[in-house]
Design goal:
- With about 500 residues, the chain is of the alpha/beta class.
- The chain folds into two domains: about 170 residues, Aspartate Aminotransferase, domain 1, CATH 3.90.1150.10; about 270 residues, Aspartate Aminotransferase, domain 2 (3-Layer(aba) Sandwich).
- Strand 9 and strand 10 form a beta hairpin.
- Helix 5 packs parallel to helix 12, helix 10 packs parallel to helix 11 and helix 13 runs parallel beside helix 15.
- The structure holds pyridoxal-5'-phosphate (PLP).
- Pyridoxal-5'-phosphate binds next to helix 6.
- Keywords: Aminotransferase, Pyridoxal phosphate, Transferase.
Length: about 500
């Protein structure tokens, strides 16, 4: 096997976490199937998966029926989770199946289930009132709100971005970031206060108060499902069918060939083609009075099928935006918070200056966006909603950021990601009839199945063996583990993945 066990002692948790907070599952060091001691990053974590019933099991099926009777919208539910019993990298379902989770609630649990540092925050009586009283943060914030923002968001802010706006979810963050980009674009263009005609016309959605400005997005993108975001979400028909569209421009996102080292000139030409289309679209829309005020892009397209582009592509994209006075909005909702092996995926590109906006949610627990000073709003109530964030999430995130920094979990994602990628490439080399295009950054990894059905079948068979993997795009199998994912977890996944591939 390529993935032999390694003794890992570099990141050790504080002794205060080792008390049993979790009922009957306390253990110390684990002994894995390969008989090597492994230092677990999450104290008392389970030793491996255990599958007792078909999934969904009988209790899940019962609950799915119950849910459907209430919502008539339960078609996406796979099974119900026992969140009390889930721990670290392991999800336990309501039928008692224990699954190694490499998908982590669609990439949104940063340091594993029931992490003691997060539980401590919620147990603290000092934090009780932040949970009991949900404030309208834009009007009546609590005394500690600025400190919460500092401890949660500013401790991990992308270099050069000193301002942040909390929001509710990923879509809400993107919606408001592009609104702020529109405001700034209009303010610069107008060069003075709004006219009476603009004030009168905007109330019913007419020009000149509501200018026909646009945002350019890319093929394969996913930026959320609110009506505004849908006009920038181009990955699958199911997201957009039957909904009106703002008709904003879309440029092609590069489709790279793998392995990268064998297709250097082809991939460069592909990226150049896409960038030329960006320029053409910005210029053409300007002539039509439909100025592109912002370009929005994911560092790695997630829902669209784990599509990557080179650092050079993004550097050139930033240069194009700058030259044309267009804001660059990086949607790091899925790539942010360490999963790429950098805290923010764009840190890997060596951009000559910070992006104009970086949006986030998922592993950051709270939505929001960072922005450059020049994009700050110039009047109250332009960017606003009732809640504008959620204080308990900020308290939890503050504790999570501390753990990530103290245990260097971003470095861990780099190391575990490399280990996992080596294993995936090894499987790809041994099963070329089933797998292709292994790719990724850090633990943000994907590999393609032969087609849609084949990828789904593999994920389903691997789940029967106790490991959760995700799917994305047309035929990609994607991995989005927590930052406490370690090589011994990769071993478990790779062994079961190997068994399934051998059985096909
Ligand atoms: C890159 C990206 N942007 C935005 C979103 C939307 O986030 P939310 O589902 O929290 O609205 C997602 C969700 O998957 C995403 O992956």
């Amino acid at each position: 096997m390529a993935w032999i066990q390694r003794l890992r002692l570099s990141r050790i948790y504080p002794s205060s976490w080792t008390g049993c907070f979790h009922g009957s599952v306390c253990r110390g060091l684990s002994v894995t199937s390969a008989n090597a001691a492994v230092q677990k990053l999450v104290p008392n974590e389970y030793d491996g998966p255990s599958v007792k019933t078909p999934i969904p099991g009988p209790r899940s099926q019962e609950l799915i029926a119950k849910l459907d009777a209430i919502t008539k919208n339960s078609g996406t539910v796979q099974y119900f989770v026992d969140f009390k019993a889930s721990l670290g990298n392991y999800l336990v379902d309501v039928d008692g199946n224990r699954l190694l989770d490499l998908f982590m609630q669609i990439s949104s649990i940063p340091i594993g289930y029931n992490h003691p540092a997060v539980i401590d925050v919620l147990k603290s009586s000092d934090n009780l009132h932040a949970m009991v009283n949900r404030p309208a943060l834009g009007v009546f914030p609590g005394e500690t709100f600025p400190d919460m923002l500092d401890q949660a968001f500013m401790q991990c802010a992308p270099k050069g971005l000193t301002k942040v706006q909390p929001m509710m979810c990923g879509a809400c963050s993107n919606e408001n970031a592009i609104k702020q980009a529109f405001l700034t674009y209009r303010r610069k263009k107008r060069g003075g206060p709004a006219t009476q005609e603009e004030m009168d016309s905007c109330v019913t959605g007419k020009e000149p108060g509501c200018p026909p400005y646009t945002v350019l997005s890319f093929t394969g993108s996913f930026h959320g499902r609110t009506l505004g975001c849908l006009s920038m979400t181009n990955s699958k028909p199911i997201f957009r069918l039957d909904f009106p569209s703002l008709g904003w421009p879309v440029a092609p996102f590069p489709r790279l060939n793998y392995p990268l080292e064998d297709f250097v000139s082809e991939n460069k030409a592909e990226e150049s083609r896409c960038l030329q289309e960006v320029i053409r679209s910005i210029e053409e829309n300007k002539v039509r009075g439909r100025d592109v005020a912002a370009v929005i892009v994911e560092p790695i397209q997630g829902e669209g099928g784990d599509n990557l582009a080179s650092a050079d592509f993004f550097r050139q994209l930033q240069a194009i935006c700058k030259e044309h006075g267009v804001a660059l909005v990086l949607d790091e909702v899925q790539t942010g918070c360490g999963t790429s092996g950098h805290f923010w995926a764009h840190e890997a590109w060596g951009l000559p200056e910070p992006p104009d906006f970086v949006t986030f949610s998922k592993k950051m627990l709270s939505g929001g966006y960072y922005f450059k000073d020049e994009f700050a709003v110039d009047a109250p109530s332009r960017i606003f909603n009732t809640w504008m964030g959620d204080p308990p999430k900020l308290l939890m995130l503050g504790a999570i950021i501390k753990v990530i920094q103290e245990m260097d979990l971003v470095g861990q994602a780099r190391e575990s990601g490399q280990y996992m990628m080596d294993g995936i490439k090894d499987l790809q080399a041994r099963y070329p009839q089933h797998l292709s295009r292994a790719r990724g950054m850090g633990t943000h990894i994907a590999v393609d199945g032969k087609d849609t059905e084949s990828a789904a079948k593999i994920a389903s068979l691997v789940r029967e063996k106790g490991v959760i993997m995700g799917l994305s795009g047309k035929q990609s199998i994607r991995f989005r583990p927590a930052l406490v994912f370690q090589p011994h977890h990769a071993d478990i996944c790779l062994e079961r993945f190997d068994d399934v591939l051998a059985s096909l």
